[in-house]
Amino acid sequence: MAQDSSATSPVDFETRVAYVALSIFAPGAWPFDTITGEGPSAKLAELPPPVANRRRETASAMLSRADRLGIRAIVPGDDEWPHQIADLNHDNALRGAPLCLWARGTGRLPDVLRRSILLTGAAAASDTGKQLARQIGYELGDGPGGWTVANSGRYGIDASAINGASIATDRAPRLVMLPHGLDLYRGLARPEFYEAVAAEGMLVSAVPLGGESSRPTRLGSLEALAAMTAATVVVEAPIRSLCLAGARRAAMLRRPVMVFPGSERDAVSAGNRQLVTEGTARLVSGGPDVASVLASLS
Fold first, then answer.
1. If we measure between CA atoms, which residue out of 82, 86, 80, 87 comes closest to residue 255?
2. Cβ-count burial of 92 within 10 angstroms (0-12 exposed, 13-18 middle, 19+ buried)?
3. Distance CA 245, CA 234 (A)
4. Residues 155-199: pLDDT tens digits?
5. Which of 42, 89, 171, 196 is the most buried if burial means most Cβ atoms within 10 Å?
6. CA–CA separation, 228 vs 206, rounded Å?
């Protein structure tokens, strides 16, 4: 069963239902601060009563289904709500913080995120890039002072980084943020990969149950990770990669952004070099360089 967020949180059930309803039906309709300030129930009450009631019923049913699946909804006001995600509302970008996060795992989200880094890159990565991601994931995740490696878990760089962190002897938890509903991962390839992450870390999504992956949800997940983690490292990314948008959002949020140089002739790292040229990221050459930047944040 999922942890009962309402049992340990000042957020009452009606408020939780309202947050979930707004996240399903009206994401971005009102500024985040307006909703949290006035309360989600007040914003939902602005709708015609029959519409508001149907949306409450849908949200309540989704919460019940989530509980049966071992998934919990985390909303503003919960003890587990990651307060740093609110930075997304204050950097003059169009996309603000989500109103609800869905989570599955053994830990508490603030604990998992306390020392965390977004380690990401291309899905169509080179063998060299995947090997580097595994090595960096291992080095960062190992030991009592290890860092939580966080990313989308997609094939290529992201999965390699998570797999590297998973083989560390004294490993930190891992975090995978999915761009679709958490109920859908069992239908994907590699369900055992996601089960392993949930067993020792967390699966998280800002997408309601049943929601499909899309370019906007993938970008939203990357930006949420950029806000929730302390720094971003791009291992390999071509010019058109969404990773570049995530790295730029991290820089806007004043998080350090690091990239590996790759080969001058390698298109899969062309995005890395672009981030350096435009002043978004600094170059690093290995795990010690990354660790040195992270040490300055502690």
1. 87
2. exposed
3. 11
4. 999 999 999 999 987 788 999 999 999 999 876 778 899 999 999
5. 171
6. 13
Distances in whole angstroms, Cα of residue 144 to Cα of each of 61, 122, 286: 41, 29, 20
Kindly list the domain boundaries of the chain, sorted by start residue.
5-82, 115-179+214-295
Q: Is 282 helix (H, G, I), strand (E, B) or coil?
A: strand
Beta-strand runs (E) in the chain: 72-74, 101-105, 116-120, 148-151, 174-178, 202-205, 232-234, 257-259, 282-283
- Contact by Cβ (8 Å): 171, 200: yes
DSSP assignment string, 144-192: TT--EEEE---TTHHHHHHHHHHT-TTBPPEEEEESS-GGGGGGSS-HH
106-164 pLDDT per residue, tens: 889 999 999 999 999 999 999 999 999 999 999 999 877 899 999 999 999 999 999 99
Q: Does domain 115-179+214-295 have CATH number 3.30.230.10?
A: no
Q: Position 246: which residue type?
A: G
- Rounded CA separation 137/132 (Å): 8
Residue with tokens 């919960």: 78
